[in-house]
Design goal:
Length: 324
């Protein structure tokens, strides 16, 4: 792998308030699925403009990126006018990629409303660089970055740590919904990935940071194991059997000495608004004090109150230089 090879960004995004998209979800999902947040609840799809700040932050703090791909479902976030306003001297090229493009040959699984399935296929974007960084639209870069924050001369960087699968399985005993069925958790998808690789005692706990990935790894692995890919993408909505594809890559490359682990807490600002009235203010105070942290994830911004949302967006705009 050439250390000076181009690096692309891939952002997965959907506007769940689009009537056409909502109609498709209702056609393929039942009432229980569509009202269960960890499966297909509306918060999984609601967009309140996060994609604009995500793309702007890449231009502000990672101008070395080669290209930004936005993967979506027959939609367009129209980011160009926003970027032209704030980056009049030019910005990183942006290309919209439809699900039909990355699911070519697997069209029977479309439409899909499943982020795990979609992230299992982003490596199939035509023209994608071997080195790419994957973002959800609720992620921003919060400070200047370099390629070395994501890739090493021999592989890539994962912001995570070794983690006991035994402990993960034990904690799983307490993740049930009110109706007695098991929740689909981020940690469970990591466990499932480790199990796919024959690992039963340890995994890597990854966090809500940008994910550095190698297209060539996915291509080689899924060519050799087509059933593992198909079993992960056949679910239109999140399913308890699915594995995290990023974990699959990190575990394999870590074992080969090609994945370097770094502490997420030294780099990540994380917030998920809740019913605690002081939570958002306390988090934002902490965010301001930690000006060197390079990543920020504002999970479920749609669940914040209007007053909280105004404060959060103001902090984002200041942090990424859109407002003085």
């Amino acid at each position: 792998m050439k250390n000076n090879s181009p690096i692309d960004a891939v952002i997965t995004w959907v506007d769940g308030d689009d009537p056409r998209h909502r109609s498709k979800r209702e056609k393929y999902g039942n009432v229980k699925m569509l009202t269960t947040d960890d499966v297909a609840g509306s918060t999984r799809y609601t967009s309140v403009g996060e994609i604009l700040y995500c793309v702007a932050s890449l231009n502000r703090y990672a101008p070395w990126l080669n290209k930004i791909y936005i993967v979506t479902d027959e939609q367009n976030p129209h980011v160009d006018a926003f970027l032209d306003k704030y980056f009049p001297d030019g910005h990183i090229p942006v290309e919209i990629v439809d699900h039909k493009t990355i699911f070519r040959g697997y069209e029977e699984y479309l439409p899909t409303f499943n982020s795990i399935s979609i992230e299992s296929m982003t490596w199939r974007i035509p023209g994608l660089s071997d080195r790419f960084i994957e973002f959800n639209d609720d992620l921003i870069l919060a400070a200047p970055t370099t390629p070395e924050d994501f890739f090493t001369p021999v592989g890539l960087v994962c912001y995570g740590k070794p983690y006991s699968m035994l402990w993960a399985r034990f904690s799983r005993l307490f993740t049930y919904r009110k109706d007695g069925t098991k929740k689909i958790t981020f940690k469970q998808t990591m466990c499932n990935a480790a199990t796919q690789l024959g690992r039963h005692f340890s995994m890597i706990k990854i966090y809500h940071t940008p994910k550095a990935l190698l297209r060539s790894f996915y291509e080689e692995f899924f060519t050799a194991h087509p059933d593992i890919l198909r079993n992960n993408i056949c679910h239109r909505f999140r399913n308890v059997t699915q594995y995290n594809p990023q974990e699959l890559q990190y575990l394999t490359l870590y074992r080969e000495g090609r994945c370097e682990l770094r502490r997420a807490n030294d780099n990540l600002l994380y917030m998920k608004p809740n019913n605690n009235k002081e939570y958002v203010d306390e988090k934002l105070d902490m965010f301001v004090r930690n000006s060197h942290h390079k990543f920020a994830c504002i999970n479920s911004l749609d669940q914040a109150t209007e007053q909280e949302r105004v404060k959060i967006i103001e902090w984002i705009e200041r942090r990424i230089g859109l407002k003085s």
